[in-house]
């Protein structure tokens, strides 16, 4: 009902999770060769400094915030100092993942560094189950080439497919926009990593988690219990540093045009500053107090405030993540009895979401954590 027939294109059917990365990486490799053969001086060179360590320091300072074009699959084994090369990329991606948590390229690249042993372990888990063996045989892809997204939107509201599309549409996401695998040489292991990435949105829908930093970090800890990938543990360990100390959820009165200062652009700027600047919420609280002065001292004369008249809700994502969300995620990951990447999730899309949760023993977050998971 919601599945499509696989494409007959040979280039895609042979290794579809490699097709995009091979094309992009070949262009990147030719670009590197052109740079190496050029007679122009390197832009990373530190002018006026004859010491090579200074030139290396200048190169690393530039490389920390700039991810160079990546090698094509198959060239990693022939690259000199393969371990050092991977360590260099892993270090830069780890820093960028903390500085730019909304960019998935850095986290995706970091997940491919030194993961062969864990991917082999995931393959063994799949080979132990009948569904897992069938998945490795068919190698289905969870993207628009195999999934009918319009069909998912027409499903009943209590189904897994409808919940998935509600999550994707509500956050302007697309399940097929996942980074291709570049650094895993074995094709079957590369497919296993690709399937894990493509089912990440299904985990969001199943656990009812949003795309906030604290939600992503908590979900990574659950995925660590599922996969054992080092990147998931690193994300859970260092992700709290990327979580904001403070977040203010504006009420309907706070987003009023007159209160915000003139128009929709002003409303957007206030909302953005509250997200980025921890101290700017004081200005909003002050303006709220001036806009709505204190009521009479007589309790009986004070009318009950509606939900729209309530002041802004102040959340503390980092504190709650460390004290509540991560302990819940650790317990939820241990409670799961089925590995999602070993399941034919495609066959569950038109089935009730509660049935899928019961089948996998999914433990939902408690009610007091829902504002941080939305």
TrEMBL record:
Q: What reaction gets catalysed by this protein?
A: a 4-hydroxy-3-methoxy-5-(all-trans-polyprenyl)benzoate + H(+) = a 2-methoxy-6-(all-trans-polyprenyl)phenol + CO2
**GO terms for molecular function, please?**
4-hydroxy-3-methoxy-5-polyprenylbenzoate decarboxylase activity; zinc ion binding
Q: What is its EC number?
A: 4.1.1.130
Q: Where in the cell is it found?
A: Mitochondrion inner membrane
Is Lyase included in the keywords of this UniProt record? yes
Q: Which GO terms describe its cellular component?
A: extrinsic component of mitochondrial inner membrane
Keyword entries, A-Z? Lyase, Membrane, Metal-binding, Mitochondrion, Mitochondrion inner membrane, Ubiquinone, Ubiquinone biosynthesis, Zinc
Q: Which residues bind Zn(2+)?
A: 200-201, 204, 216
Which cofactors does the annotated protein need, by name?
Zn(2+)
- Annotated InterPro entries: Coq4, Coq4_euk
Main location group: mitochondrion
In terms of domain of life, where is this protein from? Eukaryota
State the top-level EC class: lyase
Which pathway does the UniProt entry assign to this protein? Cofactor biosynthesis; ubiquinone biosynthesis
Q: Does the record carry Cell inner membrane as a key word?
A: no
Membrane topology summary: Peripheral membrane protein
What this chain does, per the entry, is described as: Lyase that catalyzes the C1-decarboxylation of 4-hydroxy-3-methoxy-5-(all-trans-polyprenyl)benzoic acid into 2-methoxy-6-(all-trans-polyprenyl)phenol during ubiquinone biosynthesis.
The Swiss-Prot or TrEMBL record describes its family as follows: Belongs to the COQ4 family.
Output the HAMAP family linked to this UniProt entry.
Coq4 (MF_03111)
Task: Quote the subunit structure annotation.
Answer: Component of a multi-subunit COQ enzyme complex.
Q: What is this protein called?
A: Ubiquinone biosynthesis protein COQ4 homolog, mitochondrial
Organism source for this protein? Answer: Cyclospora cayetanensis
């Amino acid at each position: 009902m919601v599945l499509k027939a696989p494409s007959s294109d040979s280039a895609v059917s042979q290794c579809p999770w490699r097709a995009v990365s091979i094309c992009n990486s070949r262009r990147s490799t030719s670009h590197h060769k052109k740079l190496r053969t050029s007679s122009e001086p390197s832009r990373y060179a530190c002018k006026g400094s004859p010491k090579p360590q200074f030139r290396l320091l200048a190169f690393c300072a530039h490389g920390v915030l700039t991810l160079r074009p990546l090698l094509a699959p198959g060239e990693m084994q022939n690259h000199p100092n393969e371990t050092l090369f991977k360590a260099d990329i892993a270090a830069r991606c780890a820093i960028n993942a903390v500085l730019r948590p909304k960019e998935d390229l850095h986290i995706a690249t970091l997940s491919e560094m030194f993961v062969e042993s864990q991917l082999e372990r995931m393959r063994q888990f799949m080979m132990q189950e009948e569904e897992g063996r069938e998945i490795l045989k068919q190698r289905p892809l969870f993207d628009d080439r195999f999934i009918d997204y319009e069909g998912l939107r027409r499903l009943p509201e209590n189904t897994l497919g409808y919940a998935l599309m509600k999550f994707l549409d509500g956050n302007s996401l697309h399940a097929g926009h996942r980074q291709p695998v570049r650094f895993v040489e074995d094709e079957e292991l590369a497919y296993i990593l690709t399937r894990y990435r493509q089912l990440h949105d299904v985990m969001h829908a199943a656990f009812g988690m949003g795309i906030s930093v604290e939600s992503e970090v908590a979900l990574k800890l659950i995925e660590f219990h599922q996969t054992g990938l080092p990147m998931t543990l690193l994300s859970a360990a260092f992700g709290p540093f990327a979580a904001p100390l403070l977040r203010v959820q504006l009420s309907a009165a706070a987003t009023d045009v007159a209160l915000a200062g003139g128009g929709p652009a002003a409303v957007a700027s206030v909302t953005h500053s509250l997200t980025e600047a921890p101290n700017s919420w004081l200005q909003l609280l002050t303006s709220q107090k001036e806009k709505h002065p204190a009521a009479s001292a007589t309790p009986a004369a004070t009318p009950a405030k509606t939900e729209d008249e309530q002041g802004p809700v102040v959340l503390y994502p980092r504190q709650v993540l460390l004290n509540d969300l991560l302990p819940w995620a650790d317990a939820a990951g241990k409670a799961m009895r089925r590995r999602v990447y070993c399941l034919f999730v495609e066959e569950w899309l038109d089935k009730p979401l509660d049935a899928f949760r019961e089948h996998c023993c999914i433990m939902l977050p408690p009610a007091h954590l829902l504002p941080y998971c939305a």
